[in-house]
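Team,

Forwarding the record for the chain on the shared tracking sheet. I've put the sequence and predicted structure together so nobody has to dig through attachments.
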Amino acid sequence: MLLRYSFRLYPGAGQRAALARAFGCARVVFNDALRVREEARAAGLLFVTAAELSKHLTAVKKTPERAWLGEVSSVVLQQSLRDLDTAYRNFFDGLKGKRPRMGAPRFKSKRDTRQSIRFTANASWRITRGGKLRLPKIGDVPVRWSRALPSTPSTVTVVKDSAGRYFASFVVETGPDEALPATGGQVGIDLGLGHFAVLSDGRKVDSPRFLRRAEKRLKKAQRDLSRKEKGSSNRGKARVKVARAHAKVADARREFHHQLSTQLIGENQAVAVEDLAVKGLARTRLAKSVHDAGWSAFVTMLEYKAARYGCTLIRIGRFEPTSQVCSACGVKDGPKPLNVREWTCGACGAVLDRDINAAVNVAKAAGLAVSACRAQVRPGLVPAPREEAGTHPKRPTGRVWEQAGILGL
């Protein structure tokens, strides 16, 4: 299984200038290649292949107008062409129905607040004995290592986000040695807004509401930004303050999702969750709260962690009447308003909590054997693989990585 590990970078002034130069060159190559393909399409010519674009880039670098492209690593420029090919492939696959539809590739702007470049093994990047990241034509960039890499990375992507922070993103391949010991726990999860998650065993996880708590600070930063003159340096500083405030909210939400998803996967062998229509809910008056909860990101974490640690994740249909069926006797007594949080079943007399009842019904729909709120769920364990789902790590070849003694590779 391929995973991505991100670490904070702290480049110096000269290194930031070199990175800005690399970001700009990669953007120019992307836009030039996109323009070539668009002109060919408008003229009714055949689709320009990646090999032809690579030859075009080599020829353009020899011209006086584009001679400054030679100041950055050629691998960065070639990877920019690969990104364009990926964008076209995703666009065509969407038209064929192989994936959700997405728009055609668009030109990049120098005013984009997020920039990235990618180095492969051909670029001869490496991690020094001192723990710094050595990038061609940029130098040794200090890295804040928060954990060890599980295997030798194949690529590294340098990213500058809208808050002006730099990150090194490594793609690594994990093996089955990270599988967790098998447990008998099984749980159903009901996601909501009052409580972020309600489990079928009766536990309720409060919703942190990171965006709501930070609204006062965000409003002040946005108000200061709106009062700055457009194009001025003070407006640029104010924009960075707004971006950093939003980055803090996003980082706190992501950390919460990681901690909760890791806990659930570690405690249970099978997890069931409802497939919510987040896009539809985001068009209602609850849009801000829905986006603040981040259900899609949380379920995505559950999905890849379940595959990584050998657990089973089951998604049930969004049209399952989890809030309309009594989890004790199975009688469907119809929909209920959102203000009804607890009721008594007219058939069996069981007193049901709305959220816990829905979580138990999620587990029942998935075939998990759990019980809560005096509800007897039909038996039937879901077998899970003992080994980790994923690919085996490849043995490093070629040169010896210098970070072996630093990062435990």
